[in-house]
Structures are given as C-alpha cells and as structure tokens.
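[09:14] KT: can someone run the structure on this one? pasting the chain below
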Amino acid sequence: MRRFKIWENLVWFYWGYTLVRIHEWQQDKPDDYVVATGETHTVQEFLDVAFARAGLDPEKHVSFDELYLRPAEVDLLIGDAGKGKKRLGWEPKAKFKQLAEIMVDADIAQLQKELDGQHVWL
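[09:31] RB: done, structure tokens below
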C-alpha cells in the first residue's frame, strides 16, 4: 500500500456526524454546525493504531509515494464543535483510537465473511 504524507494531520470522525445532523434538523431555526472531535492526528498515527489492532507492522506493508504529495496543503485541521455541544447537546462518542479500531474490526469481520464464502454487500 502506498501512502501520502504520514506527518499530515487529518480530521477523523465517526457516525456522530449523522447524529448531529438529525439533532440539527429538529431545531426550530436552521443553522450551521461544525462536527468535530477537537483532535487532530497524523496519517502515521492512524496507521500505527490500525495496524497494531490487526497485529501487523505498518512499516512492512505501507510505503511513502511522492505521487500523493499535493502542491498546496493546510498544515493543521482541528474542528471546534462547541456550538453543536451548546445548542444541540452533541459531542463525539468515539475518539480517534476507538474509531481506528472500529474501522479495522469491521474490515476484519467483512474479510472473514468473504473467506467463509458469504456474499458481502458494501
């Protein structure tokens, strides 16, 4: 697997996005809300957590490829969901490490079904 900048910080979030939208639609007056954990993590951090969950070493399976470098880059992305917390009572339920592990567990479960000969819908 080739990867882009491992030091790049990205925003990682989970199904809470859908939940905050449902709360937003139930408001009397429409408004804009940021859905975020307030955390930022690098791609390398994600790889470390995900591969550890799978019992693998990312250095043996992932390499850097300059093809994926982008000319203009935002150095840091961190969202502030304070308005959604204050007005909607929403806050993220899954933090970064848990999210990465949920994603790996889902992929492993799907792979196991495929290996068992079950048809898997994506």
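[09:33] KT: thanks! The helical segments are 16-25, 43-54, 58-61, 82-88, 96-115.
[09:34] RB: yep, looked fine to me
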